[in-house]
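Q: Could you predict the 3D structure of DAO-domain-containing protein?
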Amino acid sequence: MKEAASSSPKIGSAAGVTLPDNPAVLNAEEYASTPSAKGRAGFPKAGGQSLSYWLQQVRSDPLLDYRTTEQLPEQVDTVIIGSGISGTLIAKHHLETWPERSVIVLEAREFCSGATGRNAGHCKPDQWRHFAKFEKAYGHEQAVQIMNNEAATWRALVSYVKENNVDCDLWVGDTHDVPLDDDVAKIAKECFERYRDLGGKVDHIKVTHNPVEAAKISRIKNARACYSWSASTLQPWKLTAHIMRENLKSGVNLQTYTVAKTIAAGSSGNRKWIVHTDRGDVACDTVVHASNAYIAALEPSLKGVITPKPHICNKVVPPRAMSGSKAIQNSYGVLLPDGGLFSINPRCTADGVVMFGGSNPGQKQLDKWVEDHPEHCINDGLANIESITVCVREFVESNFEGWKDAEIGPGEGFDYSWSGIIGLSADGVPFVGELPGKPGQFICAGHHGHGMARIFTAAPGVVKVMNGEPWEATGLPDVYKMTPERLQRLQSATEVAPKVAIV
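A: Sure. Here are the predicted structure tokens for DAO-domain-containing protein:
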């Protein structure tokens, strides 16, 4: 692999960045995830959504269609759009910062029914693997900041769950990154060593380059190496619901099944903004955009900058031969030879069901179909996509000893998959801060399919920005900051390039 430049380019100069020619890359976010230049956008699908495993578990929970008040209030201090982990955490920190201010959270559908309620249940901080990508785009100091922030985010999430006794199936243990061929293992080793040599924190990462030992540790037959550190899996809807219930006790107004359609300037002398919804208008002084993949439908300046894309998660009930004492006991990021990745969550503190996310070759086929049929860019009604399930099945049968020959009885096997909508950021990192040209409107979105490892610090960070604190007070990487220059650069890139580089 070519050595990445050691000097730090100007922050936000990432458009056009390319990665090594070798197809055995580590960056699964680039794999099957290049945004369309067409600036596709859309509001949440109104009906016919697939039900994630998490949403299937809570069908009798009254929070799903909760409305604090029968009618929308005519005015509030702050409107937060989106009730996923971003919007819910922003509401929490808003209450703690300004307990006297009124807050309403608008949700287009059921509570937490977007990406948070549809992911694979993994909170895995990236601790080295994307370092080369971010170094090439932003310089090594920013790349190290990103790695450090993801570790801090994971610690914040785990601390909150433990301190508040949240019932969300939290697991804390070793996650394994496992390259499946020699080329991927070579690149992984180069990236890891460069990160270490430039001051990256690696003492907590256990590494073996011996394929025999790697296969023994990971239980993956074709492992060529193994990198292990602490991460978590959890039931993301239950975590978000716990936080929202506390918000409601403190005075938040939650309104589900309320679609924010447009935002207009308020009339002179009154509130700054009017949020027009399908149930009426709400005047306010502050708007926070926390709808992630859907934000460009409401804020046209972000078309092509944050792009929605369907992604599939597979639920697998392991056979008896892989259950009990033989059950999988670790989470994984399996690095495939062509740049793809399996993200694996075995729910080993709960029901033992195994979740498969990430981008495999079948996901790449789905992405091509969406490019040809852009009206499906927000279609989270997709389920049981066979091309993706086939890839999952082939992987487990080839790599987990005893799975291929196991007897599969009723209730076992590859029984369900569902779709969620990822908000792809045009430069690969989220947007946190005030919207350019829209004083009083803020954003925490564009998490690029990696929100669980970013939002527990990004959400309080945007509240600090709202409070007029300097960016340094957020503790977030500089490249996450929404600035006019960053937005203008990315808008220009979407206009002139057939594809926007994801760095």
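Q: Anything worth pointing out?
A: DSSP finds twelve helices and 18 strands in the chain.
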